[in-house]
C-alpha cells in the first residue's frame, strides 16, 4: 500500500510528545517513589532508557521498511500467517490501553472536577470525541497533535519551574534511594508510561523523509522524557517521598501548592487539569487511531474510517471492567509491564529475524 507522504519531522516529533505525555502524568511520581524512594528521579531516567530502546527498535525497522507499518512489515519478516498472532495481540493491547486510559480520565474528572457526574458519562464523551477525530486522515491527525503540543508543554513547564521555590534538596538524597532492589520492576513500570511511542511505527510510512525518523524519535523522547523527569524531581523535592506515598495524584497536588508571584493565581491546579485533559485526549486519540488503522491494514481495507465507531462499544466495556481507582492502577501497572513484551520484545524479534534473513540472502547471492 502506498501512503501519501505528508508528515514532516517536526510533526512526527510533536505526535510522539503529545502521545507520550498523557494520563500517567498524575500518578508518575507515586509509581517512581514506591519503587525507589528518594531515587525516584534516577529510576525515572532508567525507565526512559528502557522506553528509548523500544522506540529505537521500531525506528530502525521503520527506516528499513519505510513504506509499511509494523502490521505489514511483520508479515514480510515472519510470514503472513505467523505474524497474525502478534498483530492481533498488538491490536487488542492498544484497544485495552485505550479503554484503561479513558477510565483513568473519567476517574480523575469525577473525583477532582465533576463530582456529581456519572463515571460512564465522562468516559463515553471522551471516547466519542476520540472516535470522531479518528475519522480524519493522517495529515489532519498530525496537525491536531502539532496544534496542541505548545498548550501541553508550556503550562506544565511553568508549573514545574514555579514549584521549585518550595523545593527541599534534602528530599532527593540519597540519589540511589533506599530500596535499589526494586529498580527493575519500577523501571519497567515507568517505561510502560511511554508505550504510546509505539504508534511511531504507524507514522513513519507517512513521513516525507522516513530516514529522518531517527531525529524525530530522539527529540520526541528527550522532550517528553525530560518533562516527566522534571515533574518527578519537582514533586519529590517539594513533598518528600514519605508524603508522596500518601497521595494518589502527586502531580495534581504539586499544581495545587504552586502559585504565581504577585498572587495573580494562588492555585494552578485548574490550569494544570486543563492541560492534562488536552494531554489525555491526544494520547487517547493516538491509541484509538493506531487500533482502527491496524485493524484496517490486517483486513486489507482501503480506509479505516468505517471502523471508528465499530470498536467504540468494545473499548467502553473494557474501560468499565476495573472495580475502582485502586484496582484500575493495579491493572495498569501489571498490564503496562506485560505490554513491554509487545512494544519492545516483538520489535526486537523482528529486528533479529530481519537481519538474519538479510545476511542469509546476501551470503546466498554471493555464492550464486
TrEMBL record:
Please list which residues make up the signal peptide.
Answer: none
Q: Which UniProt keywords apply?
A: Germination, Membrane, Transmembrane, Transmembrane helix, Transport
Q: Where in the cell is it found?
A: Membrane
List the transmembrane segments. 12-33, 39-61, 81-101, 107-132, 144-164, 184-206, 218-240, 270-295, 307-328, 334-356
Q: Name one Pfam family in it.
A: Spore_permease
Q: Which organism is it from?
A: Fredinandcohnia salidurans
Name the principal localization, coarsely classed. Answer: membrane
PANTHER family per record: SPORE GERMINATION PROTEIN A2
This protein's membrane topology, according to the annotation, is: Multi-pass membrane protein
To which protein family does this belong? Belongs to the amino acid-polyamine-organocation (APC) superfamily. Spore germination protein (SGP) (TC 2.A.3.9) family.
Which Gene3D superfamilies does the entry mention? Amino acid/polyamine transporter I
What InterPro entries does UniProt report for this protein, alphabetically? Spore_GerAB
Lineage top rank: taxon: Bacteria
Tell me the protein's name. Answer: Endospore germination permease
Amino acid at each position: 500500500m502506498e501512503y501519501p507522504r505528508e508528515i514532516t519531522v517536526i510533526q512526527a516529533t510533536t505526535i510522539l510528545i503529545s502521545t507520550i505525555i498523557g494520563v500517567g502524568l498524575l500518578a508518575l511520581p507515586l509509581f517512581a517513589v514506591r519503587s525507589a524512594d528518594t531515587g525516584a528521579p534516577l529510576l525515572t531516567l532508567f525507565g526512559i532508557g528502557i522506553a528509548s530502546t523500544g522506540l529505537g527498535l521500531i525506528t530502525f525497522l521503520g527506516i528499513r521498511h519505510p513504506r509499511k507499518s509494523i502490521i505489514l512489515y511483520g508479515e514480510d519478516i515472519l510470514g503472513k500467517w505467523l505474524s497474525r498472532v502478534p498483530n492481533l495481540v498488538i491490536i487488542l493491547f492498544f484497544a485495552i490501553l485505550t479503554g484503561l486510559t479513558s477510565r483513568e480520565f473519567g476517574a480523575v474528572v469525577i473525583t477532582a472536577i465533576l463530582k456529581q457526574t456519572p463515571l460512564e458519562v465522562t468516559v463515553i464523551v471522551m471516547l466519542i470525541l476520540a472516535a470522531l477525530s479518528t475519522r480524519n486522515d493522517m495529515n489532519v491527525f498530525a496537525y491536531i497533535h502539532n496544534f496542541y503540543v505548545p498548550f501541553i508543554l508550556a503550562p506544565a513547564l511553568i508549573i514545574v519551574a514555579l514549584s521549585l521555590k518550595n523545593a527541599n534538596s534534602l528530599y532527593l538524597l540519597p540519589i540511589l534511594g533506599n530500596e535499589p532492589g526494586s529498580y527493575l520492576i519500577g523501571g519497567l513500570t515507568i517505561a510502560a508510561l511511554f508505550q504510546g511511542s509505539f504508534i511511531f511505527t504507524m507514522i513513519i510510512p507517512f513521513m516525507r523523509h522516513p530516514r529522518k525518523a531517527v531525529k524525530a524519535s530522539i527529540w520526541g523522547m528527550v522532550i517528553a522524557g525530560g518533562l516527566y523527569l522534571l515533574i518527578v524531581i519537582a514533586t519529590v523535592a517539594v513533598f518528600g517521598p514519605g508524603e508522596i506515598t500518601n497521595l494518589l495524584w502527586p502531580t495534581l497536588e504539586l499544581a495545587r501548592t504552586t502559585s504565581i508571584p504577585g498572587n495573580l493565581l494562588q492555585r494552578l491546579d485548574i490550569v494544570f487539569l486543563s492541560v492534562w485533559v488536552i494531554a489525555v485526549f491526544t494520547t487517547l486519540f493516538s491509541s484509538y487511531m493506531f487500533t482502527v488503522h491496524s485493524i484496517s491494514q490486517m483486513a486489507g481495507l482501503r480506509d479505516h474510517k468505517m471502523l471508528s465507531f465499530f470498536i467504540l462499544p468494545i473499548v467502553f466495556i473494557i474501560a468499565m471492567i476495573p472495580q475502582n481507582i485502586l484496582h484500575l492502577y493495579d491493572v495498569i501497572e501489571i498490564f503496562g509491564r506485560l505490554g513491554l513484551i509487545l512494544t519492545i520484545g516483538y520489535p526486537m524479534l523482528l529486528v533479529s529475524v530481519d537481519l538474519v534473513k538479510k545476511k542469509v540472502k546476501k551470503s546466498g547471492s554471493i555464492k550464486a
